[in-house]
Design brief:
The chain is α/β, with parallel strands linked by helices. Strands 1-2-4-3-5-6-7-8 form an eight-stranded mixed beta sheet, sandwiched between helices. Strand 3, helix 1 and strand 4 form a beta-alpha-beta unit. Helix 2 packs across helix 3.
């Protein structure tokens, strides 16, 4: 499966409560960089970023349970601490002892939960357009389709996805719309509620400031899902670095990968742990 640094190694890890799909790119002896996707998405959302990161990292992407090519059971917990536990178990299976963890949108909340649960694994955190609290949430104009209408129509999927992008002329990749259609209604709604419950319990800056982990926050300034001004809330975390990206929306990793990679690589150059 592993044909060197240029080949993506795709594998499925059987965990106690469901199979987890994992992608790996880059030299296996380079510092580990874990990328966690957001709600109704998958590891594929990071595809444009991967070539920019593999020159200096072992890049690991995980489909969270209920998403992508991972299992979608109806009788398992999708709470963020449980998702984080599975991510930690997957890294253990891969022999990863330390990683800089990057999360996009709700993936940043999963990354935070992982740092809370497995401080030993997480050397530093980078959050990309992750709302710090529910106060920052911008409510959608229309509700998500109900179970009687599942899977959603193409028009419904595109309307749902449209607020995730703001760059003029940007075309949403069809494969990312497919990831929404591939979810069950149960996993779609339950994972969304799980993120809300985690943020209701405690805002992310309050969680992060007691962890003592280096923190980078990247935020597309034209985000239509979370107020970009809320990025300043993360300054409550000692030493946190906040980067606003003008002209980009909720998904800068897709809208402008090079501009998103620049502050991330500068951050990991300082905080990544090299493999002995």
């Amino acid at each position: 499966m592993n044909r060197g640094a240029e080949a993506t190694e795709s594998s499925t890890l059987p965990l106690d409560d469901g199979d987890i799909h994992v992608c790996q790119d880059g030299p296996r002896d380079a510092p580990a960089l874990l990328l966690i996707h957001g709600s109704a998405s998958s590891a594929r959302s990071w595809d444009p970023m991967v070539p920019l990161l593999t020159g200096s990292h072992r890049v690991i992407r995980i489909d969270l349970l209920g998403h992508g090519r991972s299992a979608k059971p109806a009788d398992r917990s999708y709470g963020l601490p449980d998702q984080a536990r599975r991510v930690g178990a997957a890294l253990d299976r891969l022999g990863v002892e330390h990683a800089v963890v990057v999360g996009h949108s709700s993936g940043g909340a999963v990354a935070t939960a992982l740092a809370e649960l497995r401080s030993d694994l997480v050397t530093a955190l980078a959050l990309v357009n992750t709302g710090p609290s529910l106060d920052a949430f911008i409510a959608p104009e229309s509700a998500v389709t109900g179970p009687s209408q599942w899977p959603p129509t193409d028009e419904q999927v595109r309307r749902l996805a449209s607020s995730g992008f703001s760059r003029a002329g940007y075309q949403i990749p069809e494969e990312l719309l497919d990831e929404v259609r591939a979810m069950t209604h149960h996993t779609f709604t339950t994972t969304m509620r799980a993120t809300r419950a985690y943020l209701e319990q405690r805002a992310l800056p309050d969680r992060l400031k007691v962890l003592g982990k280096p923190l980078l926050v990247i935020f597309g300034e034209d985000d239509r899902r979370w107020r970009s001004s809320s990025a300043s809330d993360y300054r409550a975390v000692p030493g946190a670095k906040v980067e606003l990206l003008p002209g980009l929306g909720h998904s800068p990793l897709l809208e402008d990968p090079p501009r998103t990679a620049t502050p991330l690589l500068a951050f990991t150059a300082i905080h990544a742990v090299r493999v002995d």
